[in-house]
Q: What sequence folds into this?
């Protein structure tokens, strides 16, 4: 377990219930404090309520693209990783420089992605 | 036109009535003046015949075509080759079509090119189908990846909750089969939405709601339409409650019953309507609260609550488990 992730607050935006629970469990195992949101509105509410160290963002939330959340995270300087089932063909135009986890991802891929994000974040 | 008819008889009828858009042009005057255009050509581009006859083919077709593509068309006049590249042309009303064009020279007895003949294949519908197919394949791929992630979650949760392989296998099989039935239901509805009653009855089907345990279920409520995502989540939750009832609750003896009821409600002072669903077990063995929380209660209290932005209350009174699921009504809560 990486020390870097212990106690980190991670926003998990995912609208498939079981995938979300799985991500929450993985993050708890890593020592993180995950906070869940399944819609754009609830994710934006969570971001307004408290600060986060990083976020994991599903690209497609029930047919709605999660870009408004991505924009809010960028504005707040919260580093994030996209999680998506799209190989290509999604329109992540403007966000192409952001890290992407291809679903289904392994626990280690998630922890490595978050470590990179958190290490790269200015203190 | 009369000149054509006299000389070529049946061929003119063929050219006039074929579905393939066709034009003849005079090769000896600049700009390829149109001398014949069939009905298909006119309807493809949206012109009347008198707007086309005597006009320059070039000035009619060139607008809206990319310069590079147009120079390919022009070079086809020179060598009589196909313009096999798909070129976008502009119709009279400004809309565009995709088409490929074949241009052939017509020579006289001395071998001099006197006319050009152009036939066009309209590729607009084909292009649209291609685009739709690409969208469909991307969406299918996305759905497959999400389903694989869900399967991964199911297996990993089962392993987390037990180290007994037989228990893990049973949990995985039962949940995958439940997921599969939900997919069947949503596929029948073309993945637009699903009715709550249909979702619940499908989830309870393997527990005998329609046959051997029919008298032990009371399911009542309107068939409120939920989104596919919400329907899947509710279906998983109902499956977990029923599994629990078979193992420990009202369905673990010969006498217990499960009542599943729901209604649309408008709480005081709130304009937004909610759906309140109650799972109520009666007649089972005396209930004791579980020592440790398993996957089922996780699904209900954590997963479902987040997924549907609702409140889920799971209680263990001695005479039967009660689960109350209080969620926002779908924005266009209709029923059948």
A:
């Amino acid at each position: 377990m990486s020390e870097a992730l212990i106690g980190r607050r991670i926003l998990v935006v995912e609208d498939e219930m079981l995938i979300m629970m799985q991500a929450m469990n993985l993050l708890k195992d890593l020592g993180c404090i995950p906070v869940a949101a399944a819609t754009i509105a609830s994710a934006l509410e969570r971001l307004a309520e408290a600060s986060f160290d990083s976020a994991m963002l599903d690209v497609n939330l029930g047919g709605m693209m999660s870009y408004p959340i991505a924009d809010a995270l960028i504005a707040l300087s919260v580093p994030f990783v996209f999680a998506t089932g799209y190989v290509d063909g999604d329109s992540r135009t403007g966000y192409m420089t952001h890290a992407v986890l291809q679903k289904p991802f392994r626990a280690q891929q998630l922890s490595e992605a978050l470590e990179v994000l958190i290490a790269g974040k200015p203190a | 036109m009369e000149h054509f008819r006299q000389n070529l008889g049946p061929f003119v009828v063929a050219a006039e009535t074929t579905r393939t858009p066709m034009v003849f042009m005079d090769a000896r005057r600049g700009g390829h003046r149109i001398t014949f255009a069939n009905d298909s050509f006119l309807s493809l581009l949206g012109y009347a015949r008198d707007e086309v006859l005597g006009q320059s083919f070039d000035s009619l077709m060139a607008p809206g075509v990319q310069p590079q593509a147009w120079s390919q068309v022009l070079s086809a006049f020179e060598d009589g080759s196909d313009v096999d590249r798909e070129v976008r042309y502009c119709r009279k009303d400004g809309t565009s079509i995709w088409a490929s064009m074949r241009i052939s020279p017509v020579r006289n007895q001395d071998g001099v090119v006197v006319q050009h003949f152009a036939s066009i294949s309209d590729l607009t519908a084909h292009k649209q189908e291609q685009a739709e197919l690409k969208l469909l394949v991307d969406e299918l791929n996305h759905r497959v990846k999400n389903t694989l992630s869900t399967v991964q979650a199911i297996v990993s949760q089962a392993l987390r909750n037990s180290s007994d392989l037989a228990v893990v296998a049973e949990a995985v099989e039962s949940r995958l089969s439940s997921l599969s039935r939900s997919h069947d239901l949503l596929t029948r509805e073309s993945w637009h939405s699903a009715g709550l009653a249909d979702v619940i009855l499908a989830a309870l089907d393997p527990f005998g709601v329609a046959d051997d345990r029919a008298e032990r279920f009371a399911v009542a409520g309107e068939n409120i339409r939920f989104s596919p995502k919400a329907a899947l989540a509710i279906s998983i939750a109902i499956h977990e409650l029923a599994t629990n009832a078979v193992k420990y609750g009202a369905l673990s003896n010969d006498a217990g019953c499960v009542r599943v009821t729901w209604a649309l409600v408008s709480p005081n002072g709130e304009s937004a309507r909610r759906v309140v669903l109650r799972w109520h077990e009666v007649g089972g063995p005396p209930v004791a609260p579980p020592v440790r929380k398993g996957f089922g209660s996780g699904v209900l209290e954590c997963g479902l609550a987040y997924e549907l932005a609702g409140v889920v209350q799971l209680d263990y009174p001695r005479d039967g488990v009660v689960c109350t699921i209080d969620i926002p009504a779908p924005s266009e809560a209709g029923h059948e």
Summary: Chain B has a mean pLDDT of 88. Chain B has two domains: 2-122, 158-328. DSSP finds ten helices and twelve strands in chain B. The first helix of chain B runs from residue 2 to 8.
